[in-house]
Each structure stands twice: as C-alpha cells, then as structure tokens.
C-alpha cells in the first residue's frame, strides 16, 4: 500500500517538473524522464535554473 503511494508521488513530481521546465523554455519530456531518475534533485535543479530566452 505504501509503495503504491510512493510511486504515484514520484510520478506526480515528474509531471510537475515537466510543466516547470516548459515554463522555463526547456524540454518538458527530457525533464520528465530526468525527474523519473532523479526525483527531487531534478526539482532542485529546475528551481535554480535560469529561464531560457526564445530564439
């Protein structure tokens, strides 16, 4: 039961990171996959990442 909640939370965090990445003009899919691997560390990297300028 607890393991299921862990995976749901990890997946939800990955989706949130993908949205956050897109808001900073970064590739959402790449950050989603990276978040699956790194979890909260990817969130930390994204929070401190600079927003990319549009080309």
SSE blueprint and pairings:
Blueprint: H1 2-23, H2 28-38, H3 40-48
- Kindly estimate the percentage of residues that lie in beta strands according to DSSP: under 5%
What order do the helices and strands follow? Answer: HHH
Structural class call reads mainly alpha
What is the distance, rounded to the nearest whole angstrom, between the alpha carbons of the first and last residues?
A: 47 Å
What is the count of helical runs?
3
Taking all Cα atoms into account, the compactness measure Rg is: 12 Å
Q: Portion of residues in helices?
A: over 70%
Mean pLDDT: 91
| Major sheet characteristics | none
Form type: elongated
Low-confidence stretches: none
The total beta strand count reads 0
Overall description:
The chain has 55 residues and is mostly helical. It has a domain at 14-48. 76% of the residues lie in helices and 0% in strands. The chain is built from three helices and no strands. Helix 1 runs antiparallel to helix 2 (28-38) and helix 1 (2-23) packs parallel to helix 3 (40-48). It is elongated. The N and C termini lie far apart (47 Å).
Compact description:
This protein has three helices and no strands. The protein is mainly α and 55 residues long.
Q: What are the main properties of this structure?
A:
mainly alpha; 55 residues; single chain
